UniProtKB/TrEMBL annotation:
GO terms for biological process: S-adenosylmethionine biosynthetic process; UDP-rhamnose biosynthetic process. GO terms for cellular component: methionine adenosyltransferase complex. This is RmlD-like substrate binding domain-containing protein. InterPro entries: dTDP_dehydrorham_reduct, NAD(P)-bd_dom_sf, RmlD-like-bd. It comes from Panicum hallii var. hallii. The lineage of its organism: Eukaryota, Viridiplantae, Streptophyta, Embryophyta, Tracheophyta.
Amino acid sequence: MGVATNGSAAEQAPAPALKFLIYGRTGWIGGLLGGLCAARRIPFAYGAGRLENRAQLEADIDAAAPTHVFNAAGVTGRPNVDWCETHRAETVRANVVGTLTLADVCRARGLVLINYATGCIFEYDDAHPLGSGVGFKEEDTPNFVGSFYSKTKAMVEELLKNYENVCTLRVRMPISSDLSNPRNFITKITRYEKVVNIPNSMTILDELLPISIEMAKRNLTGIWNFTNPGVVSHNEILEMYRDYIDPSFSWKNFNLEEQAKVIVAPRSNNELDQTKLKNEFPELLSIKDSLIKYVFEPNRKTSKA
Ligand SMILES: NC(=O)c1ccc[n+]([C@@H]2O[C@H](COP(=O)([O-])OP(=O)(O)OC[C@H]3O[C@@H](n4cnc5c(N)ncnc54)[C@H](OP(=O)(O)O)[C@@H]3O)[C@@H](O)[C@H]2O)c1
């Protein structure tokens, strides 16, 4: 872990070479992270162990001798988080027991763990109303336990506060430039028969995953709202999709009551406060600018107006 130095010999010594150990090889975020490391020539290995198996995690660390560990493994449910409602033990095993075991093993080895968590543990409330621009801060207590998935994620976030080696990144509604990926929030909402229209904080992975690598290099720990500043609504994204990708695209909206009839567990809608991440990374783009720069311009199929 990072040790503050003050003009000592240690400060003049070359920085130790990086070596990342990544969990979530077969997953969306874990796959992207490995690709980023390869492109940046950062040595990395994927963990083979199951998160809840302490001995396997220790063997992974022995074999890889990493400087940092990244956790992009967890149960998100297929086709969606509703799966977690009916697979509660499996969800707890990966998201609670597994994540805590990895944090504990990393702590015992003096390793920082960068943990891709979720910001879907909050919902708009009287103190943070929709449209107010008042977002939930890192120190706020989760107020959304409408789904079992979110409940496990809120529980584990609370417990991880006791691990000073863990960097918790609250990801929300992740978006990438790969519009063919069914996990991409944009791809999901373009394929739904009907969509709600609610402003939300979201994470542009093309911009933010490199930032998470930088956070590891800086040995940052604690809780971080890991979204782009500001909010964007479903309709605003679909309008961009129509303007940049498919001029003939159209969609239908429905309200939360109608949505509740086609899903099992309620979904979280919120704005996260971005002051902390923006202070650390002043170049961070607003959600709408990031969407245009990283997603819609590179995929543009329409001619410029
Ligand atoms: N995608 C989202 O909408 C979203 C939003 C916010 C936060 N997140 C969080 O970000 C993280 C990564 O998400 P993702 O979308 O990349 O997930 P994903 O595509 O579903 O991938 C999950 C990965 O976790 C692995 N995994 C599951 N249980 C495991 C266990 N017990 N031990 C070891 N590996 C296990 C899976 O491997 P196997 O196939 O071998 O099981 C897979 O590689 C998750 O914690 C998720 O909660 C995701």
